[in-house]
Structures are given as structure tokens and as C-alpha cells.
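The instructor's notes for this session suggest beginning with a concrete chain rather than abstract definitions. Hand out the sequence below and ask the class to guess, before any prediction is shown, which regions might be ordered.
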Amino acid sequence: MLPYVFGVDIGGTAIKLGAFRTDGTLLEKWQIPTRTENGGKNVLPDALDALRGWMARNQVTWSQVEGVGMGVPGPVKMDGTVSGCINLNWGEQFLPAVIQELEPGISKFRVTNDVNAATLGELWKGAASHCSSAVMVTLGTGIGCGIVADGRVMSGSEGAAGEIGHFCVDREATVPCKCGKYGCLEQYCSATGLLRCAKLELFRQSSRPSSLRDKKRLSAKDVCDAAREGDALSLELLEELGEKLGWALTAMASTVNPEVFIIGGGLSKAGEVLLRPIAASYRKYAFHAFRDTEFALAELGNDAGIYGCAKMVLG
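After discussion, reveal the predicted structure:
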């Protein structure tokens, strides 16, 4: 195996890059802005220029690089076809061919959805390094989900495996999700959803005391912080989040049966006050054969993607 491998995690705001030795040692990580104008045509050339810059500074040639792994914020089919990335202004494109044309020196290229990459990273060097299968759920502006079974990313026929954010958890809901449907998990369990629910309950229970009323610009982080400090309303909001997400994960477990569920994304910084109700709800509803599935908080943070991208190349 050649000495170096690159991981490239492309986001709507920044492109995160990592240079690794093929033994898994991270040599350097850095990021550049994502230029999404003009249909996102600059995204891939910018990423490759950043890699070439590192190579020039470190006197490395493509003949010493095992390959490049990439994560993108959208569905990716098993052959590397990106079905479209809204945040990058991309339509459908066959990424391996695009990369080969932009940089013929790359001998091996792998691409997957960014959350799948982060899941693989946590399995390789993070919270699930003792496991070979995991489902990772990221709770941020929306909900992402990555699936790795027996060390292999599961992307599905259209690259959309794991899209649990739009799993219906409330059939009586009357407020539409941004996808156009109703009662989606993302409406309740993402950071945006938690904030929406908090504002709704503060209005509904207008006479109930809560430290959340002291916040001039309420955020999901405020709800989590208040829950850790014992605010009753905030604790109930996280209990309800856990109830819905735990129930949804039983469906994932009956399909994938992972060794561990990893909770990541911005909300995961809340720690045990968030993890506890999710795991409790899951165990309440789960079939006995997988009721004891492990739950863990993500450990690699924003680096999980670059680790997973590198690991894809290494196999």
C-alpha cells in the first residue's frame, strides 16, 4: 500500500480536508471555503487544488498516494453517481469520471454521503472503534443518518438509505415539514425541530415558569443547557425528543441490527441529558433480540468525515 491517503469532506459552507498516512495517522487537517456559485462548478477544482498545495509543500506526488475519499451532502449511488446536492447547487453527475478528468493522477477514488463517511470514521477511530457495524444519527439543522454494516457503507439503490429525518412519527400533525409531508422526525428531533417545539410549549404553557423565558434569542443549545441545569420544561422537551427518536430507531434496528447507535451533530454536545431519553425510549419499544443495542455519543466531531473518507479508500 502507498504511504498517503486523503479524506475530503465537502459541506455547503466549508470543505474539510485531511492528509493521512495509510496506517491511519492524521498528518494535517485544514479547510477552505465552499464556493457554490455558478452551479457549484468550483467545488471540486478547489478541493483538488488544496490537495495539490499540500503535496507540493510536502514533496509528495500522486504516485505516493493510495487514493482520495470524498463525502458530499447528498445521496450517492453505489457506483459514485451523485443524485444532486442542493447545498452545492449540483445536479446529478457521475463523480468518479469528473474527478478522473480533473486529476488523472488519482489512482483510487471513493465517494459517499457525508453522514455515511462520518459513520465510517467513528467506526474506524471514534466512538465505535470496537465495532464493525453502526448507525449514526446526526442531530443538527436537519437529521442525517449513516449506516455501516460489517465495515461496508450501505447507500441503497438511489443513495438514500438512512433518510430517517422524514420518517413519520406523528400522523396527527398539521404543520407541514419542509419536504411537504407531515409529522416528520426532523420536525421534532433536529436542532431546528427542538427549537420549534420549545417555542410552541412556551406559548401553550404561558404561565409555566422556565429559565427559557429569560433568553432573548432562544436556541436549541439553550434548551439543552437548561435541561442540564434541571429546568423542568426543558427536560420534558428532551424526553419528548427521545421518545420519538428512540421509537424511530427501533425500525432501523429491525432492518439493520447494528452493534451501536452513535448520536452526533450539534445537539449531541448536550451529552447524557440527551442520550439517556433516546436510549430509554428505544429500549421501551425495541424487540427483545436487539433491545440491548449500545448507544454512544460521537467522539470525532467535525473530523469524523475526513477519517471516514480516508477509510473508504483503505478498505
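Then share the key points. The two ends are 11 Å apart (CA to CA). The mean pLDDT is 95.
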